[in-house]
Structure formats: structure tokens, C-alpha cells
Amino acid sequence: MDSTLARQQGGIADLPRAVLSAAYGVIDTAQRVVAGDRVRTARGNAWEAICADRARADQRDEVRRHVAMIVTMPAVPRVKTRQLT
């Protein structure tokens, strides 16, 4: 009788796993149909983050170069303007 009870409890515990597994399969299949081979993975996400970091670093370097160029430019003499009365 204990083995029958254990089998029934095991079946009850296995049911949510089976449902979740089937749901994952449906979602995975749908994602592959919609996105094609461009399924997001941890490796893909990491590579995108690396590329974004490199792009931001390039932009920071460009801004620094522009600021350095502006700072080293000779001052432009201002023309004295007269007040119109």
C-alpha cells in the first residue's frame, strides 16, 4: 500500500514538471519560428555587451580628442563692438 501511495504522489509531483517541460518546448519552438536562427543565448548577450562597451569606449575617446583639441586651440581675439545709441 505504501508503494501505491508513493507512486501516486510521484505522479502528482511529476505532472507540473511535464507541463513546464511542454510549455518550454512550445515557447522554444515559437521563438525559433519567429526569430529564426537569432535565438538569444548567454554567449550572444555577452558578445553584444562587449561590442556595446567597445562602442562606448570609442565614443569617449573621440570626445576626449575633441576636448583636447579645443583646449589646445589658440584663443581667438574678440573684436570690440560699439554700442549703438
Overall number of structural domains: 2
- Note the main sheet: none
Overall pLDDT confidence: 80
Rg calculated over all Cα atoms: 33 Å
Number of strands: 0
Helix content: over 70%
Order of helices and strands: HH
Instruction: Give the low-pLDDT segments.
Output: none
Give the overall silhouette: rod-shaped
Given the helix and strand composition, which structural class is it?
mainly alpha
Number of separate helices: 2
What is the strand content? Answer: under 5%
Tell me the distance between the termini.
111 Å
Summarize the structure.
The protein has 85 residues and is mainly α. The protein folds into two domains: 1-39; 41-72.
Structure notes:
- This protein is mostly helical.
- The longest helix is centred in the N-terminal third of the chain and has 34 residues.
- The protein is rod-shaped, with a radius of gyration of 33 Å.
List keywords for this structure.
85 residues; mainly alpha; 2 domains; 2 helices; 76% helix; rod-shaped
Summarize the SSE layout with pairings.
Layout: H1 2-35, H2 42-72
